[in-house]
Amino acid sequence: MNSSHLFQPNRALGYVSNHIPPNVRYIDQRRENVVITCVGRSFHVYGCNSFRLIRTGRIHPANITAIAADGFLTYVAAGNLIYGWRSSVELRKVYRGHEKPVRLLLPFAKHLISVDESSLLKIWIVSTQELYLEIPFAAHTFEISAIVHPASYKNKILLGSAQGGLQLWNLKSCKLVHKFTDFDSKVMQLEQAPALDVIAVGLHSGRIVLLNIQYDQPVMEVHQDWGPVTAISFRTDGTAIMASASSNGQVVFWDLEEKTIVSTLMAHDDSVTGLHFLPNEPLLVTSSPDNSLKMWIFDLSDGGARLLRFREGHAAPPTCIRYHGASGRNIVSAGEDSSLRIFSTVAETLNCSLGKASYNRKASKKQKKKSEDPFRMPPISYFTSEVTRDKEWDSIAALHQGLVQVTTWSYDKRRMGDLHLVPEAFQNKQHKKDFSVMATCLCLSHCGNFVVIGYSSGHVERFNIQSGIHRASYGAPTAHNDYIRGLSSDNLNQLVVSGAADGLLKFWSFKQPYTTVVKTPIETLDLGDPITLIRTHRESAILCVALDDFTLRLVDLDTRVIVRRFDGHRGTITDACFSPDSRWLITTAQDCVVKVWDIPSSYLIDHFRVSHMCTSLTMSPTGDFLATAHVDYRGINLWANKSLFTNVTLRGLKPESDAPLLDLPTALCDEQQDGIGFPLYNTKHMEVDELEDVFEEINLEYNSPPQLSSELITMSNVAASRWQNLLNLDIIKKRNRPRQALKKPKSAPFFLPTVAGLDFEFDLQATIGDKTTTAGGKIAEGGSRIIESNQVDHLTPFGRLLNAALTTEEYGKAIDHLMKLGPSMIDYEIRNLTPFNSGSGSLPVMGAFMHMIVYMLGQRKEFELAQSYLSLFLKLHGRTIVENEQLSKLLPAIEDAQKAEWSALEDKLLYGLGVVSNLRNFSG
């Protein structure tokens, strides 16, 4: 099967928008405007009232190239096809016919206009999906670049070209109505102005012309100095303002009455591709390829705009991701845009940014154009975090590409820290652009007080992360003679482990008394090949070391020996992580394969391949998700752990076998695409192993039989609360008794009925009538209500079942009855088996109970119940059994059955302990 045994795509985080212009429409049912943005092969729908992600679209077979919407459908162009979606999830229409990718869409009454890359214009009937009209244009003379429907112009559309020309067409008659005067630049945007007959034309040269198309005369002309016009929009709330966007992220607001610039706004770090004023509101929505969507409100005293709401992700692919905290709800991510972000796996509204790395944060805040900030630091290549001191001081330390400085960040305050950690020997080089020495790896101590940093010169230094003071150096003069590739420390701050490109793994004492230099390591391991990276699972004291020969070694920190070796990757290992229980090691490499290794058995149990190399991965502390980051992808991909939700059969795989190719997660998983359909299995040409895998996936429900084998000891499925505290029931009752004694109620007067008359006489007929009582306790006609003692069975229901088993020797009904009772009733039933001390039982019934225990032990079922019932029976009736010769003869039979079953159970336990001990001590 083309799937992973353990992981399935779940969803992607951090995608907001790309270069495709968004669409804004009003939804009557929601009574709010919504924004539809493109995120690759899917689209997102955000509500403008709160900017919440209210809906996500289905996955398309190709990247989306255009989005449009009318009052009923959302039209999405992906490749050569156009899809019509209802409520973003119901596929209603598919329009086929284009041979080139579609790049422009325009809903036109009951029709849909589409233009592909060859400038072929098609008009579709929306309801029937039929082609109504087709108009080809020569791309070398009139390449369609913009399209708009002029208000009040029936059946007419205005087309703009890359050559600078404009043409007005009547679609009903399929005729060219008018050809306008050509402009000297490419037509980038066409937008209907609030005034009739006026169309805003945005050109590549930065010129904006308000053209009266009725007379072919320009009404107004302005020029923006920030590059091509990428978007145009008009305010409709009574203010004559036009907004134009540029390719450098600037938005300019023009006063159409005064013909002047009102204000400018640096809205994004990249080109502004989406610009929409909400109808009759002072709100502006902008989007950009920098993966952000923002809403601005015009409520400042000077008429300017301020940021009201926003959604954003990384503007460049993440370089390192790590789960933070024990809840598994937050992922800290560093991107190539020099930013550090927190993504929530629960709700997108909880996402936040810690800012961008800067040499001078105060100076960076004053920069108007963020993309050209001279104080911007290089991207973060690796970081590490600890939760122990989150509230007190900075809890994240980060490396930067090519820099000797290490920056600190505060997770709790959501900002960059003030420290730039640099050893004194390198401080004179910190302001140079070409460093001869740079920080290459680091680790935070478990206590959150210290950060240990390794450098390309072979130095290893330890700093206090609260004050930034240098505390210790490892090695004299250096720890290694080559690049430091990995660092780690244990839970108790006893050890520091360093690995370098010289292939040596050194164990150092964390601190040396009376000195700040730890000169010699405690022990050194020569691994033979240069070390690529080091990852640690501190709770189990296991160290994962990746080597340049694409192999992995597991080292026990306590014994300092190699306990496992894994081979199978065909490229340099880029990252590795452990599962929370340290049973699995998950690795990824430049061969685009993610592998899962079972540490106790040393087997490869799962692997899958992705289209783009995985640069970083991390496992949730709760074990439910695996998060990955990939080259050229700006989001974080979540993979669900199927072993937590379904029965997964794991078996060893050959490390050199080919891994199946999986699609990366998007907004929705492939299994949830009801509109596109579920995959069907073709079993005609499948091998036997493949068919078995299919049937395992289909038949996920398995009901275990009551007993797997008569050779095994089977425990009961009865709740432990019903039998575990039987011996301590007296103590529990004594502890739970009320502190105040119960008050005795007042005695009610007792009156005997009398016969009406002059003489005082009792009515005996009210007590003795014409009814008799049978032996079962029922009253028969013509008898007395007085019950005779020789006609009553004093046994309890459980005692009667045991009494019946004296002749039949079938104890199943008695066992089932006892299993249904609670602890108090079990104590009552067993206590009343004796005929002495106010009991209602008999000695034969007590013997039957002992035979029942022998029967339960012989069946090897309900093992713990038999032990608990026997313990309570001996506690209550031990003296009676010893004093009675008939009951004493049954004790050897119980003892023999007990020894036989315990020896069988002991053999199984010792065998299991031996296997586990052998696997633990095995080094391979």
From TrEMBL:
Q: Looking at the record's lineage, which domain of life comes first?
A: Eukaryota
As given in the record, the signal peptide range reads: none
The record's InterPro entries line, in alphabetical order, gives: Quinoprotein_ADH-like_sf (IPR011047), WD40/YVTN_repeat-like_dom_sf (IPR015943), WD40_repeat_CS (IPR019775), WD40_repeat_dom_sf (IPR036322), WD40_rpt (IPR001680), WDR36-Utp21_N (IPR059157), WDR36/Utp21_C (IPR007319)
Q: Can you say where the WD repeats lie in this chain?
A: 222-264, 265-296, 477-518, 566-607
Annotated ranges, domain WDR36/Utp21 C-terminal: 707-920
User: What's one GO BP annotation on this UniProt entry?
Assistant: rRNA processing
Q: Which keywords has UniProt assigned to this entry?
A: Repeat, WD repeat
Example of a GO cellular component annotation carried by this entry: Pwp2p-containing subcomplex of 90S preribosome
Q: Which SMART domains match?
A: WD40 (SM00320)
WDR36/Utp21 N-terminal domain boundaries: 35-299
User: What is the name listed in the Swiss-Prot or TrEMBL entry for this protein?
Assistant: WD repeat-containing protein 55 homolog
